[in-house]
Design a protein that fits this description.
Chain lengths: 296, 258, 270
């Protein structure tokens, strides 16, 4: 190796004169300012016209503390068995509903993906998914209750139908985001459409799609805990009764059971999701996989 | 200005990054620290402003003891020490000027920081810092829209805005191409000469080290194995510091010609 | 597996054994599904009953597909109230959510204690469904929009707080270190390096929360928390499925409009 030396030939040109120029004026940025002003104006309008009695707001904390006190001090241990049974039914509703949603959303989502479905089927599938997404589960639950009668089946169907919209949309997004290479490879060896799907598309997309199913299960657990309000089974009916008959201690116990169950399910499920995405020996990602905020 | 006395730094897990280092850097000197990655260069620089705390030994900067400083004292000492990073460490989604104003935070009351309303004097200092590195025209540009060399000059301006007594630079040119590396190194040298700010720079390339360092300190396995003027540091010295024969990767000039 | 006595250097590797966990997992999944779906222990999923239900639901379906268009005037007032609820809840809830997010990200939390406390609070807040909040706050504030607003504020804290805190977790910590190296206080470092990095994402999440509120206000109205949901509840209880269908269509349109605007805005932000 030759002796390293510093030559002047490598010294670069001095910074261009443009950068030496005088200080620029502070630019005005109207976009963010406009957004902030719009938000502030909307907030003022809403507060001004709401007709809410400020005294009611002031009384709120005191009332809240009083009711929380009635709920939690002491909890009504007598309701624990019933509440647990109700919570288990809610979990069953969420489980069956999520499976219904997953099974139906997978083909719909594939059809809605631009790189899989044809143009016509993509548009149709997207519209169906959009429509389903705009129907709240509670409304679906009421419709199912009036069709097939009171009980958890109505709840499971409502949850299932309600999950199709978001799950299908997310499935389509994941499939559209996959690498083109394996699809081309599967086509190049003469694979038929179904074979291309099975070997070119699904292996890439399935882990993420399954992670969304689990994520949706977490959301569905919350949803199924309230469907009982309209007679669709689970712990919700009990809760709404307790609250309307002012049995606050019983309601508080049931709410605690809901909170504990959802937190436990979230923790287990997020661990499994990480493993599905990263693989058994993969690195541990720091954040949950949320590609679009619609996942919630 | 900087006094290391038997400083040892041990990371959790038992890695000894600095081993019984004693070192004096007088005011106004430009010191270049060289060594392989993992030799403790980065730890040495980060110990000086307390981003890494010594496990044992004492360390003084401008007569103030870092090793035993409280949180508030540490903030006060750090405000006199500007730091320049390998990855620039700019906030990409805000303007160049806001990035440079971060150098004034130690003087700005908290409520002003929260509202992003800086006193005019502080804005003036930030502007002058930007002028010194000749990038003032970009003051209101988002940092993400600048090239790597420009971003590092903003990094230097941020350090200058602190009006520091010491500047630390941790591999300031490792993410830059060779010509830009020289621009940044000459900026650092000029600032050292014109403002008399004591400067400690980590470098890997021996030609850059020899060209810009008043004094070169060689680190190997956390110990100082060479300490002398740049003119004394010939190839043999570098081979001793690196513990192996030199390769093209060790010379910026050679890298540029690859 | 039978290994040849003299294996050449490039022998075919044996098929890796399948871990017992995979079939065990599949078996557990099927078992749970059967348990949850069975008529005896679970929800009683049966296809014949489904079809019977669909037949019974024919009249409902007919009403649903024949919306009572002339009822639209009566919906304007409740819709405006829904809009008010959604706006106030989004503004107040998202502002609080930002504070929670700063507390509950490892990167920006001022200390371990506030981090753990914030995390626990956020987990509890998130675990309660929006409708349950509405029930509780109707008990607290009595019937009216105030209960709906407070319920949705908590709902938004949960959603936006979690999303923002995860975004903070993902940012580059270099600038934070730079601010600390310049002698800044922790709060100043967070304000100057974390806030600008996540602000566009936060605004996008807040717009999204506003959309969610419009949808959720349907539901919270059921328990008397004001807005269009209250009208929907009355219609459902009165078996007026033609009005139900009109309300659903109107919500579909409103949500669609708001969503289009907010998607356009979000795209420019991030």
């Amino acid at each position: 190796m030759t002796a390293p030396h510093v030559s002047t030939s490598s010294t670069p040109t001095p910074p261009s004169t443009a950068e030496k120029a005088v200080r620029p004026d502070k630019p005005r940025r109207y976009g963010p300012m406009g957004l902030a002003l719009t938000a502030a104006a909307a907030g003022l309008w809403a507060a001004w016209t709401s007709g809410i009695d400020p005294a009611a707001i002031l009384r709120g904390p005191e009332q809240l503390v009083r009711i929380l006190g009635l709920m939690l001090l002491p909890p009504d241990l007598g309701t624990v068995p019933d509440a647990l049974a109700g919570m288990i039914e809610s979990l069953q509703i969420a489980w069956v509903g999520t499976i219904i949603g997953a099974v139906i959303s997978l083909p719909l989502g594939l059809l809605a993906a631009k790189n899989v479905g044809g143009r016509f089927s993509t548009t149709m599938a997207r519209q169906v998914l959009n429509l389903l997404r705009s129907l709240p589960e509670l409304v679906l639950a009421i419709l199912f209750v009036s069709m097939i009668g009171l009980g958890p089946l109505a709840g499971a169907l409502a949850i299932g139908l309600g999950s199709i919209g978001t799950l299908g949309k997310l499935t389509a997004e994941v499939v559209e985001g996959i690498d083109r290479g394996p699809i081309e490879a599967a086509e190049a060896v003469g694979g038929e459409r179904f074979q291309v799907l099975r070997w070119g598309v699904l292996p890439q997309a399935l882990p993420e799609i399954m992670a969304f199913w689990l994520y949706r299960f977490e959301i569905n657990v919350r949803a199924s805990a309230i469907l009982g309000l309209v007679g669709a089974g689970g712990i919700g009916g009990m809760l709404s009764n307790f609250l309307s008959y002012r049995r606050y201690a019983a309601a508080g116990t049931a709410i605690l059971i809901v909170i504990a169950t959802t937190i436990a399910i979230d923790m287990v499920s997020s661990r499994i999701r990480r493993r599905i995405i990263a693989g058994p020996r993969g690195p541990k990602p720091t954040a949950d996989p949320i590609p679009s905020a619609d996942a919630l | 200005m900087i006094r290391f006395r038997n400083v040892t730094v041990e990371y959790p897990g038992g890695v000894r990054a600095l081993n019984d280092v004693s070192l004096d850097v007088p005011a106004g000197e430009l010191v270049v620290v060289v060594g392989l990655s993992g030799a403790g260069k980065s730890t040495l620089v980060r110990t000086i402003n307390g981003l890494v705390r010594p496990t044992s030994g004492t360390l003084e900067v401008d007569g103030r003891d870092i090793s035993s400083a409280s949180k508030a004292e540490l903030r006060a000492i750090r405000s006199d020490i500007g730091m320049i990073f390998q990855g620039f460490n700019l906030v990409k989604r805000t303007s160049v000027l806001n990035n440079v104003l971060m150098g004034r935070l130690h003087l700005v009351p908290r409520w002003r920081t929260m509202l992003a309303r800086y006193p005019a004097d502080d804005v003036e200092v930030a502007m002058q810092a930007l002028e010194r590195v000749e990038i003032v025209a970009k003051s209101y540009v988002r940092a993400s829209n600048l090239s790597g060399g420009q971003q590092q000059r903003v990094g230097i301006a941020r350090a200058l805005a602190q009006e520091p007594k010491v500047i630390l630079a941790d591999e300031p040119v490792a993410s830059l191409d060779p010509p830009t590396s020289h621009v940044v190194m000459r900026d650092l040298q000029r600032i050292n000469r014109e403002l008399g700010i004591t400067t400690v720079v980590n470098l890997h390339f021996l030609d850059l080290a020899r060209a810009y360092g008043d004094r070169i300190i060689g680190l190997r396995d956390g110990r100082i194995v060479f300490d002398g003027p740049g003119s004394d540091a010939d190839e043999q010295v570098f081979e001793d510091i690196y513990g192996r024969s030199l390769t093209a990767d060790d010379v910026l000039q050679a890298k540029a010609e690859l | 597996m039978t290994a040849a006595p003299t294996q050449p250097a490039s022998a075919r590797p044996p098929k890796p054994p399948i871990s017992w966990k995979v079939p065990a997992g599949i078996a557990a999944f099927l078992l749970v599904t059967w348990w949850a779906g069975s008529g005896r222990f679970g929800v009683g999923l049966s296809i014949p009953e489904l079809f019977a239900g669909l037949e019974r639901g024919q009249r409902i379906m007919e009403d649903l597909f024949d919306p009572r268009w002339q009822a639209w005037r009566g919906l304007i007032g409740p819709f405006i109230e829904t809009l008010r609820i959604a706006i106030l809840a989004a503004l107040l809830g998202c502002a609080a959510a930002f504070g929670m997010a700063v507390l509950t990200s490892r990167i920006s939390a001022p200390g371990l204690r506030s981090f753990l406390a914030g995390k626990a609070v956020l987990n509890v807040v998130r675990s309660i469904p929006d409708l349950l909040y509405a029930m509780v706050f109707v008990a607290v504030f009595s019937i009216g929009p105030l209960a709906g607003i407070v319920a949705l504020i908590l709902f938004n804290i949960g959603v936006v707080g979690k999303l923002t805190s995860e975004t903070i977790d993902g940012i580059d910590t270099g600038p934070l270190e730079a601010a600390q190296a310049a002698g800044a206080r922790h709060s100043q470092a967070v304000r100057t390096s974390v806030v600008p990095s996540v602000l566009p994402n936060f605004v996008a999440y807040s717009l999204y929360a506003f959309e969610l509120n419009l949808r959720a206000s349907l539901v919270v109205g059921f328990v008397g928390a004001g807005g269009i949901g209250q009208v929907l509840f009355v219609a459902l209880n009165g078996f007026r499925y033609d009005v139900v269908s009109l309300i659903v269509i109107c919500i579909f349109i409103v949500v669609f409009l708001v969503e289009s605007v907010s998607i356009a805005l979000r795209r420019r932000l991030v």
